[in-house]
Design brief:
five-stranded antiparallel β-sheet, YdhG-like, Aspartate Aminotransferase, domain 1, globular, Iron chaperone
Length: 124
């Protein structure tokens, strides 16, 4: 959502709307803890964690943040996601609610395990 081109995750968070920044910082901290060796980069104008495949991404919108582990992980954790808005690819967290840290960590760990178990070379 930042209007200016950004080149790092830190720049992305700093350029995001003020209401989004605490949520983005909290999410970023969790993801760094789960995947400390992952490359952090900006792809398609949003933060990505890559190891060397897509692990997860996140983005700020006007009213909520989107966290994207993978459609498969979201589908596998449907019961844990009850009460949270989701799409096929995103967990959405409105800025009026706290980041569900345990849930995000659970999803991120599941995605990390899923990616590390793969034997193909595909990015997604």
């Amino acid at each position: 959502m930042p209007a200016l081109p950004v080149h790092s995750v830190a720049e992305y968070i700093a350029a995001a709307p003020g209401a989004a920044q605490p949520h983005l910082r909290a999410l970023h901290h969790i993801l760094q803890d789960v995947a400390p060796q992952a490359q952090q980069c900006i792809k398609w104008k949003v933060p990505f964690f890559v190891e060397p495949r897509f692990l997860f991404s996140f983005a700020a919108t006007r009213a909520h943040l989107n966290f994207a582990p993978s459609a498969a992980v979201l589908a596998d954790h449907r019961q844990a996601l009850a009460g949270w808005p989701t799409t096929a690819n995103f967990l959405q967290v409105r800025y009026t609610r706290a980041v569900p840290e345990a849930l995000v960590r659970q999803l991120a760990l599941a995605q990390l395990a899923r990616v590390r178990a793969r034997t193909d070379d595909a990015f997604w």
